[in-house]
Write a structure and sequence with these properties.
alpha/beta; 354 residues; globular
């Protein structure tokens, strides 16, 4: 699911396939339709049903979709080139901070999207608004793996759990997993990872299973690889694993011990000609009643105050934001990655080439 995906199928026959100027008379018609960029796969399929299509119907407007795999250089080059065609992009926490510092994103107009007080405090940032809260967890296929891994130490135990295992091809989360798997307490991970000795320790731990490692780039890959038997263990986003169980008949297990908790945000790229449309989409998607639909399909935490109040207790218990899962979590330190990302990206890339 990569590349440009305009929602053109059947548009001519639908009543909401009208030019923007006909539906939002207060705004000048832009040079193109609003383009929204997310992570693809099952997650973007869910976004389409819950956010994208309902917004198009409500506004009698068109919306174009694209996908990306992350990476600050992708955003930097789009802004530098002067030919950027992306408007609204879902980014990870460190990307939000870096892009805001480098002025790649428009300042968020909080009044236009409902006000700061309408969102969880963690979702309120100068250049972005929280989209989802989720965790990186350890996942496996119960149908094929004997035993149940309890945490990241088991990920590195190739005697008890032989076979290939997968990590994300990024230092962020991978180095945390390496230290946790080596017995470092969650409260000590970032203090240690800020040192040369701690970084050396993390890479040594990765070296210990290097021959058994596969590397994923897209969030859709872990579930596919587990289902095919390509890997026996993988770090994965909790929502994608739960969705595969619910919709594809899978029997994937999740170990929540020392899950890596984080939040993605929506940002508007600097100079977007569709800034007002993007803000209107964010206001629509930020309504508690709209956001409450997401966890019912894919168990991800939401950011609008009041959205969780509409969900039943058994569903709340499945979210990464539940008290039990939050208590077991290492929250990703985005400020750490703001300071150290470039240096650790270089070292990680050199290690991969190794």
């Amino acid at each position: 699911m990569r590349g440009r995906r305009p929602w053109l199928r059947g548009l001519a026959a639908l009543p909401w396939a009208l030019p923007w100027a006909m539906t939002l008379p207060g705004h000048a018609q832009g040079p193109r339709d609003l383009t929204v960029v997310s992570w693809g796969g099952a997650y973007q399929d869910v976004q389409r049903d819950i956010f994208f299509r309902p917004w198009m119907t409500a506004r009698d407007a068109r919306l174009l979709e694209e996908t990306w795999d992350g990476g600050m250089d992708v955003l930097r080059e789009r802004i530098r080139s002067g030919t950027n065609n992306w408007d609204l992009v879902q980014v990870e926490g460190h990307q939000l901070l870096i892009g805001c510092r480098e002025e790649l994103f428009e300042p968020m107009d909080w009044e236009a999207i409902g006000g700061r007080e309408a969102y969880l405090p963690a979702a309120v940032q100068d250049c972005g608004v929280g989209a989802i809260a989720y965790s990186m967890v350890l996942a496996w296929d119960r149908a094929t793996l004997r035993g149940a891994p309890a945490g990241w130490a088991d990920f590195f135990d190739t005697d008890r759990f032989p076979g290939r295992r997968a990590l994300r091809r990024r230092p962020r989360t991978t180095l945390e997993i390496a230290l946790l798997g080596d017995g470092v307490a969650p409260s000590e991970v970032y203090a240690l990872l800020a040192t040369q000795a701690g970084q050396d320790r993390a890479f040594r731990k990765l070296d210990s299973i290097r021959a058994q490692l596969a590397w994923w780039d897209r969030g859709s890959q872990p579930a596919l690889w587990l289902a095919s038997g390509e890997v026996v263990l993988s770090c994965a986003h909790n929502g994608r694993i739960a969705l595969a169980n619910a919709t594809d008949g899978r029997d994937f297990g999740i170990a929540w011990a020392q899950n890596l908790a984080m939040m993605d945000s929506w940002v508007i790229l600097r100079g977007s000609p569709n800034r007002q449309r993007a803000l209107d989409f964010l206001r629509f998607a930020g309504q508690p009643a709209v956001q409450a639909r997401l966890p019912r399909v894919m168990p991800c935490g939401v950011t609008a105050l009041g959205a969780l109040a509409e969900l039943p207790a058994p569903l709340l218990a499945q979210l990464s934001t539940s008290p039990a899962h939050a208590a077991a979590a290492l929250r990703i330190d985005e400020a750490f990655w703001l300071r150290h990302l470039d240096a650790l990206n270089r070292r990680f890339a050199a290690w991969l080439r190794g």
